[in-house]
Amino acid sequence: MKTPTKMLAMVLETPRQPLRLLELPIPQPGPEQVLIQVHACGVCRTDLHIVDGELPNPKLPLIPGHEIVGTVVQVGSDVERFRLGQRIGVPWLGYTDGQCRYCRRGQENLCDHALFTGYTLDGGYAEYTVADQRYCFPIPEAYSDAEAAPLLCAGLIGYRSYRMAAASGERLGIYGFGAAAHIITQVAAYQGKRVYAFTRPGDRSAQEFARRLGAAWAGDSTDMPPQELDAAIIFAPVGSLIPAALRATAKGGIVVCGGIHMSDVPSFPYRLLWEERVVRSVANLTRQDGEELLTIAPQVPVRTEVQPFPLEQANEALDNLRRGKIQGAAVLITSSGRHPLNTD
Ligand SMILES: [Zn+2]
Ligand SMILES: [Zn+2]
């Protein structure tokens, strides 16, 4: 088989500028890395925050993308978990040192020296990528490449947020009904939760979408739900939703912020927090979160709704996400998406 040496990639050279389509050398895997022929890569709101310059110090130039599904085409000398031809997924958490005080106490998501795919490491808006095998996951067979991609961040971070909220009771509010919410609503309904979906005011199609996926109630983020919530997850990057969610939450309830970036939180009266309400954020993921979600997802079964774009249209996909025009998740598809291992 002829081995190609060049690949197409969508590259961020300067924040707040469109990505550029470039031809680059295919990276070589290090001892712990696999070389992956990318079939599909999800477009996450975090990518938008990086491209828009809202997150500090990205690698530059950068290939974004951290919901990568592809086939292993080359393995480094120390790779044991995966074999050639295997379909795997690459998530946001790309590396940890394994020895800082966070790693030692099981909080590798907070590692002092973590590296993140598509942020401080090159990601999957490309025909090929390399990834550290220790942070990759096998992809359940039930999913196509495109359907699996959103599970790898929207699903994983969503699931970690859901785990933090789920212990508080059965009434779960979800603010912002995008990629993460559409996955987690299905998991929550399957586990017997009543889901209350809050969307941008007036977004009837998102509310209808939420009900179709199992939400018991759907309305505007400015509405009060018909019952007090036991817990709420905020996926929308809107700081004013924190007091709004606290106002809708019962005594002892928790508000979990699942996003990496939010607009400033307005001040609010202490009585909204009183009676043991909790506000917390969720950062990154652990490998255990990934293993749990990828086990549960095919059991539910979680169906992901994806809007495919060719790799070359990454800017259009990001722009649609920015304008709230994506139902479910946007996913970039490479030319190999249909014919893996056809490297001619
Ligand atoms: Zn660490
Ligand atoms: Zn993400």
Assembly state here?
Answer: single chain
Number of separate helices: 9
Question: What small molecules does this complex bind?
Answer: zinc ion
Structural class: alpha/beta
Structural features, described:
With 344 residues, this protein is of the alpha/beta class. Helices cover 23% and strands 26% of the residues. It is built from nine helices and 17 strands. Strands 3, 4, 5, 8, 9, 16 and 17 form a seven-stranded mixed β-sheet that branches. Helix 4 (154-166) crosses helix 5 (179-190). Residues 44, 46, 66, 92, 153 line the site of one zinc ion. One zinc ion (ZN) binds at residues 96-97, 100, 102-103, 111-113.
Give the helix/strand layout.
Layout lengths: L5 E6 L8 E6 L7 E11 L1 H7 L16 E8 L11 E4 L2 E3 L5 H4 L10 E2 L11 E5 L4 E2 L6 H4 L5 H13 L4 E5 L3 H12 L3 E6 L4 H9 L4 E4 L8 E6 L6 H7 L1 E9 L20 E4 L5 H13 L6 E5 L3 H9 L6 E5 L11
Parallel strand pairs: 10-11, 10-13, 11-12, 13-14, 14-15, 16-17
Antiparallel strand pairs: 1-2, 3-4, 3-8, 3-17, 4-5, 5-9, 6-7
Helix pairs in contact: 4-5
The protein binds zinc ion (2 copies).
